[in-house]
Write a structure and sequence with these properties.
The protein has 137 residues and is α+β, with helices and mostly antiparallel strands. The chain has one domain: Nuclear Transport Factor 2, Chain: A. The chain contains four helices and six strands, in the order ααββαββββα. Strand 1 and strand 2 form a beta hairpin.
Length: 137
């Protein structure tokens, strides 16, 4: 039985991104394209760039946790709202929220194929206690 697009995206975001070397081949289509709007501008990432990005995050942080607040599916497209938390190598006992994201993923052949992401760094004025209650996860 094949997994739904929502299950595929959920499983990716709950995976061990920093320690599981099979994440890329398990979850991403070989022709993946991620169009990412961030505070530093627009980035367009393909398979190799995504792989390099995750490897760099793994070298930079001791741990990465994803908190998902929304996960919605509509005809093979999945919208997910989430926040990244990290633990630094220098201070692994302290967890820090680093960025908020919202992404829309198209799933093709059981893998994440085309993504659109908008991110924003966490700041001191964030009200995560009120804004991150889980909805349809």
């Amino acid at each position: 039985m094949s997994k739904s697009a929502k299950e595929i995206v959920r499983n990716f975001f709950l995976s061990k991104l920093l320690t599981d070397n099979s994440v890329m081949e398990t979850y991403f289509h070989p022709d993946v394209v991620l169009i990412w709007n961030s505070a530093s501008g627009l980035s367009i990432l393909h398979y190799e760039e995504l792989d390099a990005f995750f490897k760099e995050v793994g070298r930079t942080y001791a741990d990465l946790r994803v908190e998902v607040s929304h996960l919605l599916e509509d005809e093979g497209h999945v919208t997910i709202r989430y926040k990244f938390y990290v633990r630094t190598i220098e201070n692994p006992d302290e967890e820090l929220g680093i960025a908020h994201f919202i992404s829309i993923w198209e799933v093709k052949d059981g893998k994440m194929f085309r993504g659109h992401t908008v991110s924003q760094p966490v700041n001191i004025n964030d009200d995560t206690a009120e804004s991150y209650h889980k909805v349809k996860v």
